[in-house]
Structure formats: C-alpha cells, structure tokens
Design brief:
The complex is a heterotrimer of chains A (446), B (400) and C (549).
Chain A lengths: L6 H6 L34 E6 L10 E3 L5 E3 L13 E5 L15 H8 L14 H9 L8 E4 L23 H9 L15 H22 L3 H24 L25 H20 L5 E5 L16 H7 L10 H22 L2 E2 L2 E2 L4 E6 L15 E4 L11 E3 L6 H10 L24
Parallel strand pairs in A: 1-6, 1-9, 4-11, 5-6
Antiparallel strand pairs in A: 2-3, 4-10, 7-8, 9-10
Helix pairs in contact in A: 2-10, 4-7, 5-6, 7-9
Chain B lengths: L22 H19 L13 E12 L19 H8 L2 H7 L11 H5 L63 H6 L11 H11 L5 E8 L5 E10 L16 E4 L6 E8 L2 E4 L2 E9 L2 E16 L5 E11 H8 L6 H4 L3 H10 L3 E3 L6 E20 L6 E2 L7
Parallel strand pairs in B: 4-11
Antiparallel strand pairs in B: 1-2, 1-11, 2-3, 3-5, 5-6, 6-8, 7-8, 8-9, 9-11, 10-11, 11-12
Chain C lengths: L1 H17 L15 E3 L2 H12 L19 H5 L6 H18 L5 H4 L12 H16 L5 H18 L2 H12 L3 H4 E3 L2 E3 L7 E3 L1 H12 L6 H8 L6 H13 L3 H12 L20 H21 L12 E4 L1 H7 L10 E4 L13 H4 L10 H12 L27 H4 L1 H5 L1 H15 L13 E2 L2 E2 L3 E4 L2 E4 H11 L1 H16 L8 H13 L4 H9 L26
Antiparallel strand pairs in C: 1-2, 3-4, 5-6, 7-8, 9-10
The chains are: A alpha/beta (446), B alpha+beta (400), C mainly alpha (549).
C-alpha cells in the first residue's frame, strides 16, 4: 500500500487512470503557506447548504435596516448577532406568481428554490437549486448531498429533482449517525488502511446492475425515462461511495467521530424535543462535512406550516399564526413570536457549529455558503412578498458578508442565481416567467 | 293558618312560602298537591317512579406502601437514628483486626461481604431463614407519637383484650387518637421502607407498573358515588396488566379479567365519598424479587377516598399483618439487607415483641401485628369470564 | 320451478350484462405504468420468496399521494441516492441471510462442489430458480449468464461460494426489474399494430391488486400457459384468488392507502392533553378499522356503504382505554358491538379517522370535514387562499371561543372563507363529540357540544347520522369505484373511460355494493389490462419480446 500519497498519484486516480473522477480531498500539504488556498493556487473547496424554518419572522422584529448596507438584528434574531459579520440579509425580494395560486406554506419557498411556482401541493416543478449545485460539486463525495430534518417527518425536505419526487430527509439521529459513521464510514485519520476486496466485488455487481437497468430503461416512455435517469444518478453515487472506499481517505484535521446518539433519542413535534433533535443532527451534519463526507447539505428545522407546539398547548405554531390575536399593547402575536425567536436560536446553533470547526486559517463556516430561508414574510397572512432570506458564511472569500441587501421588488430567484454562480455553476439565467432572472446580486459577489 | 286543609299541612311547596299567596297561586298549589296524591295512589299509573339504577365501580390497585409517617431529618420519629443493616451489625461484632482483614483494609464492598454477614449462625445458618439463632442488638423502633392508621382494637389505650396484646397507640398527624400501627413502630426507622430508601415496597410497585397483575376492588350496588348506605365490595386478582401513559402513570379505563380461585367479599358504605368496609381476612398477592409473595392481613378493611369523577381512589388498607406471612417474604429477600439496611434477627425479634393481634392460644404471644398500608387505585373494567359458557360480562351501569 | 327460472334468467342477464365482456364498454387504456414497490409489498415479496423469518431492516422513502392514492404516486416515484443506499443495504442483509447456514438448505437448491470456490452449475440452478420469481417473468438467457459470472467472480474473490451467491442476489434486489412493477407489452394479435400487456405483466397487476404481493406459482404458471389471455383462464385465476384468505391482504392494502394511514407514522398527540394516546393505541386504531373493513366486506360479504353505519367492530385492550368500553380479552382482539343508540357508528367515528384528522392537542372540524370530502366522496377541496385575512377570526371581544363551532363561525360567514368551509366544517362539526384523540365527550370547556350539521342540503344530528348521510350519498359508492380502479391501474381514469366507469358503478350497485364482486368485475375486464396504443405515449419501436412500448 502506498505509504505517502503523492499529489500526482491522487490526481491520476488510484484506479489506474480510469475515467472516474476522484474529488481532491483536502490535505494540509495541498494548502499554501497561508492556509487560505491550495498550493496550486486553487481555492479551498466551498460547501453549500440550506437551512429552512417555517412561518417566517414577526414583521418588524427581525432586523432594523440602517444606512447603506448596515443593519442590526432585532428581538427575533438576537441569537444571530454574534454571527452578523457572516450574514447577508435580503429583504424586499418578491415572489410573482403569474396567476398561479399562492399555495400557503408551499409557493413561498419553492419559488425561490426551484425558480418556478408550483401549481398544487406536491407539485415540484423543477429541480431545487441545491440539487443543481450538488450535481455540479457533490458527485465526488461519498454523499452527493445530505438532507436532514428536526421534525421527525422524512417528508419535511425541500430538496427535489423536479420529477415530482423529493430527497427524503433523515428524521432519526441514530439512523443518521449509523448512515454517516457506521460500518461504511472510512475514518480519514486512521493510520492504517486496507481496501476491502469485497468492495471491489460490490463494484462489479453494481456494474452488472447498471447493465440490467439499461436494457430495462431502453423501452420506457419519456416521463419514465426521467425517473430512470434519477435511478442511474443514484447508482453512480453508490459507485462513487465504493470508489472512495477503495482509497485511503485524506486526513481531515477537524474530523472527530462523534458519540452515537441513543437508539431511543426522542423525536417529535414538541418544540423542546425538536430543538434538541436539531442540535444533535447539527453536530452530526457538521462532523460529516468536516470529515469530507459531503459538500452539500439541507437542514429543515421545521415543516413549512410548522407543527411545533409547546408541551400541553393544544395549538401548534401554524394554528397560532392564524388564530392567536394580535396583542393590543405589544402589536404582535406573542406566542407566534416566541416560536419565531426559538427558530432563530436554533439557526444560531447551526451556524455556530460550523464556526467551531477550524479549517486552514479560519473556520469551516468561512468556507461555506448557507442559504437560510423560510416560506412567508408574515405567516398570519401567508404573505409572499419580501420573504426574508439570508446567506451565511463567506464562501471561501467569494462573497462579501455582513450586509443588508434591499431587493426593490425584484424576484427572489436573484438570490438563488447568485448562489449558483458563486458555487461555480455555469448558469447565467434561471427561473421561469416573472421569476426568470439573469441579474445576480452583484453587491455581495467579490 | 287556621282552616288549612289537612292535606296541605306538611307539604312544602315553596310557592309564596311565608307570605299570603294570591288566590290563583293557592289554587295552583291545590292542583299540584292533588296531582301528587293521585300519582301516589297509583290512579295515574303511566307516571311510574322507578328505583335509581345501581352502579358499579371497578378499581385496580396501582401501588401499595406502608403508611409511614416520617419527617425529613427523621429526628422526631427516630431520635436514635435509623436501623443498621445486617452487614453493619456483623462488622460491628468483629475486632478491628478482623474487620480490616475481612474487608481487605476497607477496600471490599460490603455487598460482597453479604454472604458472610448472612451465614453467621453458630452452625453457619442463614440468619434470615433462622433469625432466632443469634442475639443481635435490638431494632431501632419508632419513638414518635404520630402515625397514620386506624383504630383496630376498639380501645382508647391499647390495653390487652382477648384478641389483642397490650401496646401503645398513636395519634394521626391530623389529631385522630387511638391509632393502632405497631408495624410502623417496628419498621418506621428502617431505611428500606422510608421514602429515600423505598426499596422493599418500590420493587413490587415497579413490577406492578411494568405490566404486573393488580388486585381489583369491585364495588357494586352503588346508589351515589358520594353516599351509598350498603354496597358490596369484592376483591379479585387480575391476569391482565395495567397500561401506562408516556409519563409512566397508570391509565384508567383498562379492562382486567379476574383470575379464578381468588375472591374475597364483604360489605361497606360510602359516606361523603369515603368507602369503608367490614373487616375480613384477605391474602393480598404481589410479585417482587422474582417471586410471588403475599401479605396476609387479618381483619382487613378499606378506607378509600373515591375521586368524584370515578376515575381514581386512594386510601388505606388496615388490619393485622400475619407475622408468618411477613417473615416468609423477609427470609427470601434477606440478601437485600445491605441496600435496605435491615437486620433480620433484630427485625424478627422486634416484630414478634411488638405484635398486638391474634394471641396464640397456647403461648399468649401475638401472631399478627396492627398495620396500615396506603394504596392508590385507578378505575377500570372488571371482566368476569363465565367458565361454562366462555361468555364475558362486565357489570352494567359503570360509574363515570 | 318458475321462481327458479326467473332467478336463473335474471342471473343470466346479470352475467350477460356484467360478466361476459361483450357488454363491457371499451377502455382506451392508459400509458404503461412503472410502479415502485411499496414498503409493504417489498416486505411481503421477500417473505413470500424467502420466508417470514428473513429480516428486512431498513427504511423506505415515502411515496407521494397523487390523485388520492399512494399507489398512483408509486407510478411517478423515483429512486433517490439516499433511497438507493437503503435498498443496497437491505439487499445485502437479505442476501446474507438467504445463504447463511440456517437457510441455505431450504433456499439454495443444490450444494456446490466446494464451499470456498465458485460452482457455476449450482449458481446457475439457484439463479434460474430465483430469477423469474424476483423479476416476475422468465429470465433472459444473457441475464442468467451475467448473474452466474458475477457470483462466480465474487466467489473466487472472497473464497466463498455462498457469499458469491449473496453478492449476485443482492444485485438483483436493487435492479429496477425488481424494485418496479413495470408494464411490459407485446404486439396484440387481435389488433394489428396495437399492443397489449404481456401475460406476466397481467399476472403482476392481478396479484398486486388482489393480494398485494408477487404472483404465486399457480398464477405464474397460468401466465406461462397463456391462460391469462383467455377470459375463462383469467376468471379461474381471479376466482381462485378471491376465494383465498390472501384477499385480506389486498383489501387491507387498498384501504390503508385510501384512508391515508401512512400519516400514522408521524402522528403525534400531546402527552399532557391526551396521555392515553400511547403508541399501542395508534397501532391498534389502524388495525381495528382494517379488521372492521375485512370482516364486513369479505367475511360477511357486506354492502360497502354499511361501513359508515355499522356498529360491529373489534376491540383490543389499549383501544378499550380510549373508547372507554370493557374489553373481554385485553391482550388480543375481540368482537365488539356498540349499542344501538351509541354515537359510534361506522368507520368515520372510529379512532383511525377522528384521531388521525385532528391536531396534536385538539380536534379539528375542518380537517375532518375535508377528509370526509376527499377520502370518501372524492371531492377535492380547493386550497386555502393565500391572502386570507384572519382578523375576522381574532375577535378581540371574545378571544377565547368556547367551542369549535363558535370559533369556526367566522369560517362560514366571511365570504372569502365560506365557499370552501361550507363544504367541510358542517361535516366535521358533527364529529365534535370526539376530541383530538378520538375520545367521546359531551362538553368542551364546560359548554355542551352541538353536533348538528348539514351536507348538501341534508340536515342531520350527530356522528351516527353523518354516517347515514355518507351511506346514502350516491357519490360515496362511485368514489370507491374510482379509487379502486385507480389503485388497480396505477393512474386516475382517463377521459375515454367515462362509460367504463359508469359500467363499473352500475355493476357495483347490481352486486349489492360488494367489494369482492367489484374486484372480480375489474380483474376479469378488458379495461384493466388495456394499454394505450403505441405512438400515443412514446415514439420508440417495440422490441420483439417482452419490452415495453
């Protein structure tokens, strides 16, 4: 077995110059002296993620807009204040529907994710842009992307390929742990490495599976062909996983295998349970990224019409946003507001977890771009215009941060387009009809 | 008023009470009274007065604990401190050199020394199976004046009667006098029975909560849950377990099939929501420490507070706890003396010395001890299976 | 004699009208479907193939409910990366068990020359036997060859014959041929240029409809012998399958889908408000309704509409807690009949409906009304408007509406709300005697509950009468026909099937609304197997054998 991996052997691919692309794992020896770029001058790999919460903020209690691009976090978002320098806050971007219905807790976020307004619940009209990004940068990782939820419901995932199917979210901390760090995990920091011959056998089996599937797919109609394409993409991802299992993974300084959460970790929609689940899942997810298991991730803190509730309360967050009276003295709905603040506290937990991981001269958060978004501007009215969005992380220095960006009524898709371009996708236009845009938010691009 | 018709006297109508009612009201009164008489005489037979339907309440006992009065620091009831466990008693009998050797300079856990502490009879006998073969320092018994319980012997001062031995009485914390609870006197200062130790009784209660088979109390012939003069009370044992909610509380409305060959019946009455029963001898089974045991209580009677919604009850089972029944349980759990801090020989001696019920005709020594046990219960359906027809019936008219 | 003759004539007429084919309206058929196995079907297939003790430990991606059914969603379902990972994991675990020391004697039909080396002959025997069963059709020669090769290479690599078999088997379990039930077509001899479902696809359609699993040996043989292409042969198989106890599984699977029981997986009740609604209650609630259904529809050959009025059901110990009734066998299931005047009558009043369609901590007249409309009447309720103003609901003079009926008054009076809520709330309000966990109550917040309602002009009082209203509504039975047919073919009925659907509805009525008879009508029809002509769906040329058009 090769003792010291030379850059060349890795670049050539251990599988003897085959056509399979092997992603460059991050080795310190590849970094330049400043730890800010690869020795070759290429930038450090950037990770992309989304963080979703349902039911927005209480209007007037999220941020205070100041002169220029300055802003300050208000009560709902107080927990995010320590990370303000990493966060861009987008306001006043709208969601034109071109006559499609405003499907409550659905149109709001899918418009900005898929560039298209859905026509009914369950209709996911085009791929969400996290999938486009993971197709571009995620193929060489063990997982093309990771979808997680704190709600206990695997349907609470917003990541979809546009065939009408979504990428189910992992709801169980124990199962997530087993998937990430169980028997199939290759510890990048383990000194010895012996490729398992059985993995090569599995590779040849998968090859036979693909042959079988090709003749199956040959006779299908066009709609079914698209589903078969997704099948083949999935098989290729499994092949990639097996490829990686055949090589010694590059050491990852920040990778420390976490303790397994208990098999009976409570999962549920009681708010404190969900907050706890989110915390555990965040720890696992961050470590998965730090151990180079994936470059793309999607966390749903809650469903869009969040069913979270305080223990003993008969009303869920969603019900409250509609039925709770506006307090005459306060001017807002107090319990709904309470939930909004809890959501932002969990977002802060998420952001902080990335900020705690050292990478090169900075942190993992510095090399991430996370799209934090929600489904409405004012849940009580299912308001679509001005839905708050944030970018979190410096994307390896490719974006400026700490700014408030006013959208002037432009479509929300400008943000998704910007993010795809920042992640290196060759896309200059995105979205359909009034959501179509070719104008990135250049203010944040370096 | 003079000249009042005979049939108007003694009929309280409430109309114009105490004032002179206008004529039409008086006429109305006459009509109503006449109607009442006609009904009573049976002339208007389609208006019938049906007796109220009798109701049944089924209860499953969810926990059983000695009704133990204790203060947080124990000083009031146990001024001399709590009892020592048999291991400590034994260690105290050793010289310092012997103690040091046997504990390997104090490094060996006393639970590991348990077997030595148990088998220390003159011929190596287990002193819980043979408690009388050694003379241990006496049990620390309750010195306080307060206890829960009931006046079992009917006397004010505990003097000896043909059926009881002389003993001291207690006063309840609420001030009720004449309480017989010698059992409390014996074990009230033993860690394993007190709340902090909770061992000897929490094990069977835990078994019960984890799907164990409860004792059922079926009260039939109830007119009204607050007051019923004569009710039948039956005790059954169930073959079905109780169901818990996610917080571990036993849920009401479960169904329990009665086991064959276990039945005790008595009468009782409910006054202001409290059921009291006529004493009978009852064997109460329980499961603990991997074995079946029972508490045989002579003159057992209930005093249960029934919740107004009919979903639960709590109160006392009091009577004379048969000493043989008690000891047949203790001798099999002797090994718990290290964690429950009791000493078998001392406990055996104390419970026999302080026993106050059912004197042995030959020796005059009392063979049972006055006791009070607090019980909690939830309501449920008691299912009687008819062996012949395999039909099942649940008593009609369940109380809710 | 004359009576017999009259009945005989009537029977013959009925048979002629509804059983003989010529009276049956044509169906243009739909596109060939490719349906992903549901989790239940996957597990049942593994059990049928390898035995009940083979553990399937993994999780399955949820299906999307489409046109009211998960089974139609299965026709659109794809396999994502994470789903494929799970299939791969399950496949390897199943395969490992199949060849382990405990199972190989029974499941591997031969012994290799050596345990630690390849044995092509034995591998061939194994795959030749298991292949057609897994793929639900004959194995192509080149596929068999490939399997023997792969397992041979594997066996040589790890010096273990059985491990080699397991690698090959695991591969089979993650191919689309296994994971999807696909419609294979062949040229139709009766319609030159046209195509029809081939015999094995007919067998699969039939088997998954009636038994929710792969075709058994007898059905496979019938397919092989060409019996399924003749009405007589088809009817013989259908009658055999309808008479089998395995029909229960098929009927349960259908109703489980139609009633939306998949949402039980994520059903949460607040443990403080409803402490008695523990997991065993949720599990038993589904079972209770499914048993009520199979008892009435299959065992008692009853009228489908009676599901909404029947007081006969079953009880378990945990359910007795919620229903507050005595259960004479608390550790099992016992028949139970609610008294004649009891508000519990019909499956709409059972826990599986009222508890499922509620919030975690309170009931919901709107969710229940919507569910009655969408599930039992196939009436789609429009989505709520996006810009609704809830200020009307939040009357500051009465911040605490005492009963749901009071709270929902605004729903029915405000113009933007009333249009839709008028068709939902009145039904749901009749069920308000059942709280969010399905427990019976007469008051809410100390105010007596008024369980009166009105549906499409018919007034009623209370849950039992709501059941009667649904029983009597003609839409109820046509909805069931619509759903069952959609479940059968994996797609909603197409425009050209209007007459066929009317025919099915008439047949359902003629047969006293008996579901097994409706199944027979569907399963023996031409429509069930009709495939839209090639060219309408795709432009690719059909292959000579066994390819889809």
């Amino acid at each position: 077995m090769i003792e010291a991996l030379s850059r060349r052997s890795i670049l050539r691919g251990i599988l003897g110059g085959s056509a399979i692309t092997v992603g460059l794992p991050l080795l310190d020896c590849f970094l330049d002296g400043n730890g800010t770029a690869l020795a070759s001058g290429a930038p450090l790999p950037i990770r992309f993620g989304t963080w979703f919460w349902g039911l927005g903020h209480t209007p007037g209690r999220a941020i205070a807009i100041k002169d220029g691009t300055d802003y300050a976090f208000l009560e709902n978002c107080a927990a995010l204040s320590p990370f303000k320098s990493q966060i861009n806050f987008f306001t006043n971007f709208n969601t034109p529907t071109d006559g499609e219905p405003n499907i409550p807790h659905d149109t709001g976020h899918f418009a900005g994710l898929a560039g298209n307004c859905p026509s009914a619940y369950g209709d996911i009209p085009s791929p969400t842009f996290d999938v486009l990004i993971s197709d571009a940068i995620g193929q060489a990782s063990r997982f093309r992307s990771l979808e997680v939820t704190a709600s206990g419901n695997p349907r609470d995932s917003l990541s979809a390929r546009g065939t009408g199917n979504f990428n189910a979210a992992e709801p169980s901390p124990f199962r997530f742990y087993t998937r990430l760090f169980g028997p199939e995990f290759a510890d990048p920091n383990k000194a010895d490495f012996k490729p398992d011959p059985r993995v090569m056998v599995r590779q040849s089996v998968l090859s036979a599976v693909k042959d079988e599937a090709s003749s199956f797919a040959g006779g299908l109609g066009s709609a079914d062909k698209a589903r078969m394409d997704e099948y083949f993409t999935s098989v290729r991802q499994m092949e990639q996983q097996l490829n990686l299992q055949m090589q010694k993974p590059a050491p990852a300084e920040a990778c420390k295998i976490p303790a397994s959460p208990g098999e009976n970790t409570p999962i549920g929609t009681e708010i404190f349970t969900a907050i706890n689940t989110h915390k555990i899942m965040t720890q696992l997810l961050v470590m998965a990224v730090a151990c180079n298991q994936t470059k793309v991730f999607n966390m749903s803190f809650s469903a869009s019409a969040s069913q979270y509730r305080k223990p003993g309360d008969s009303a869920t967050n969603h019900t409250l946003t509609h039925e709770e009276p506006v307090d005459a003295a306060l001017g807002y709905q107090p319990i709904s507001d309470w939930f909004a603040t809890r959501s932002m506290e969990s977002m802060a937990t998420f952001v902080d977890a990335f900020a705690q991981v050292r990478e090169g001269d900075g942190t993992l958060l510095d090399n991430c771009m996370i799209f934090a978004h929600t489904d409405t501007n004012y849940a009580r009215l299912h308001a679509l215009d001005g839905i708050p969005m944030m970018s979190v992380g410096k994307a390896g220095g490719r974006i400026k941060t700490g700014m408030h960006i006013a959208g002037n009524g432009d479509p929300v898709t400008r943000v998704g387009l910007t993010m795809m371009q920042v992640m290196g996708l060759a896309v200059d236009q995105w979205g359909t009809r009034s959501l179509k845009t070719s104008k990135p938010v250049t203010e944040i691009v370096v | 008023m003079n000249g009042k018709p005979e049939w108007e006297k003694g009929v309280t109508m409430g109309i114009g009470k105490g004032t002179f009612a206008p004529l039409f009201v008086r006429r109305l009164r006459y009509c109503v009274v006449a109607l009442a008489l006609l009904i009573a005489s049976g002339i208007l037979t389609h208006v019938s007065a049906e007796p109220a339907k009798k109701k049944t309440l089924g209860l499953a006992i969810t926990a059983w604990r000695t009704a133990l009065y204790e203060t947080p620091d124990g000083k009031e009831e146990c001024p001399d401190g709590l009892t020592l466990g048999g291991d400590q008693v034994w260690l105290n009998m050793l010289t310092p050199e012997q103690r040091d050797k046997v504990t390997r300079h104090g490094t060996v856990e006393t639970t590991q020394l348990r077997d030595f502490a148990l088998e220390r009879g003159p011929h190596g006998e287990d002193v819980c199976w043979n408690p009388a073969v050694v003379n241990d320092p006496p049990q620390k018994t309750v010195q306080g004046k307060k206890s829960y319980g009931v006046n079992l012997d009917g006397t004010d001062d505990g003097h000896a009667t043909p059926r009881t031995c002389a003993h001291e009485k207690f006063v309840t914390p609420d001030g009720a006098r004449g309480i017989d609870n010698q059992w409390y006197r014996v074990i009230g200062c033993t860690y394993g029975w007190r709340a902090a130790g909770g061992y000897t009784e929490e094990m069977p209660n835990g078994e019960l909560r984890d799907g164990g088979h409860p004792i059922l109390v079926e009260i039939t012939g109830i007119d009204d849950l607050r007051n019923s003069t004569n009710v039948e009370v039956a005790f059954y044992h169930s073959t079905d377990g109780m169901i818990k909610d996610n917080a571990g509380n036993i849920l009401p409305n479960s169904s329990y099939r009665v086991a064959k060959d276990y039945l005790y019946t008595t009468h009782g009455s409910i006054v202001d929501g409290v059921l009291t029963t006529v004493p009978i001898d009852i064997h109460f089974p329980f499961y603990a420490h991997f074995m079946h045991s029972e508490r045989f209580i002579k003159d057992a009677r209930l005093r249960l507070d029934l919740a107004p919604d009919g979903k639960s009850a709590a109160g006392l089972v009091a009577g004379y706890y048969d000493l043989d029944s008690f000891w047949s349980y203790m001798e099999r759990i002797g090994e718990l003396f290290t964690v429950a801090h009791f000493d078998c020989p001392a406990l055996y001696e104390a419970v026999h010395r302080l026993a106050d019920g059912y004197p042995d005709p030959k020796t005059g020594e009392c063979t049972a001890i006055s006791a009070g046990f607090s019980v909690t219960a939830v309501s449920g359906y008691i299912i009687h299976l008819d062996a012949k027809t395999a039909q099942a019936s649940a008593p009609a008219g369940e109380v809710r | 004699m004359r009576i017999f003759l009259r009945h005989g004539i009537a029977a013959t007429l009925a048979l002629a009208l509804f059983g003989c084919g010529p009276g049956e309206p044509q169906s243009p058929g739909g596109a060939p479907q490719v349906r992903r196995l549901t989790e239940e079907q996957y597990r049942q297939v593994i059990a049928d193939l390898f035995g009940k003790d083979i553990k399937v430990a993994g999780h399955f991606d949820p299906l999307n409910r489409t046109d009211g059914l998960l089974e139609i969603g299965a026709s659109r379902a794809a396999i994502t990366s994470s789903a494929f990972e799970q299939y791969d994991l399950i496949a390897r675990q199943v395969a490992a068990q199949v060849v382990d020391a405990d199972h190989r004697e029974v499941l591997v039909p031969c012994s290799p020359a050596s345990d630690s080396a390849p044995d092509a002959a034995c591998a061939k025997a194994f795959f030749a036997r298991i292949g057609p069963l897994l793929y639900r059709r004959p194995l192509e020669a080149k596929t068999l060859e490939r399997l023997v090769d792969v397992s041979g290479v594997a066996a040589a690599s790890v010096h273990d014959f059985y491990a080699g078999l397991a690698f090959g088997l695991a591969g089979m379990l993650e191919t689309p041929e296994f994971l999807f039930v696909a419609d294979y077509t062949e040229p139709d001899p009766d319609r030159p240029g046209g195509h029809r479902l081939d015999a094995y696809s007919r067998a699969s359609r039939l088997s998954f409809l009636l038994w929710d699993t792969m075709p058994d040996a007898a059905l496979m043989k019938a397919a092989q012998d060409g019996d399924l292409n003749s009405k007589r042969g088809l009817r013989r198989q259908v009658d055999r399958m309808l008479a089998s106890p395995r029909l229960d599984a098929g009927v349960r699977a259908f109703f489980s889908d139609m009633l939306g029981f998949d949402t039980f997986d994520t059903l949460a009740k607040d443990p403080i408000i409803y402490p008695a609604f523990v997991q065993s209650v949720a599990d038993d609630a589904q079972e209770q309704t499914l048993r009520t259904i199979t008892n009435l529809l299959i065992a008692n050959k009853g009228d489908y509409r009676d599901l909404f009025t029947t007081r006969d059901t079953v009880m378990s110990g945990p359910l007795g807690l919620l229903y507050d009734v005595p259960v004479t066998k608390p550790d099992g299931w016992v028949p139970y009949r609610f008294p004649d005047d009891d508000p519990r009558a019909g499956i709409i009043t059972q826990l599986s409906f009222v508890a499922l369609h509620s919030h975690p901590g309170r009931s919901s007249a709107t969710l229940r009304g919507k569910a009655v409309r969408e599930i039992f009447l196939c009436q789609k309720v429009p989505d709520p408007p996006g810009n609704v103003n809830f200020a009307l609901v939040q009357d500051t003079k009465n911040p605490n509406y005492k009963t749901a009926r009071q709270r929902l008054t605004a729903h029915r009076s405000a113009p933007t709300c009333a249009g839709c809520h008028k068709i939902m709330d009145p039904m749901g309000l009749a069920l308000e005697n059942f709280d969010g966990a399905g427990q019976y109550r007469t008051v809410e917040n100390d105010v007596p509950i008024d369980a009166s309602g009105e549906v499409d002009g018919v007034k009623f009082q209370g849950a039992a009468e709501l059941g009667k209203v649904v029983h009597d509504n003609p839409v109820t039975t046509s909805c069931l026909v619509n759903r069952l047919y959609g479940y059968a073919v994996g797609r909603p009925p197409v425009a050209g099937e209007k007459d066929w659907m009317k025919y099915l509805q008439a047949g359902f009525a003629e047969n006293g609304y008996r579901v097994p008879d409706l199944l027979r009508l569907i399963a023996t029809s031409d429509a069930f197997y009709a495939i839209a002509p090639a060219g309408a769906q795709s432009a690719s040329e059909p292959s000579p054998t066994g390819a889809r058009s």
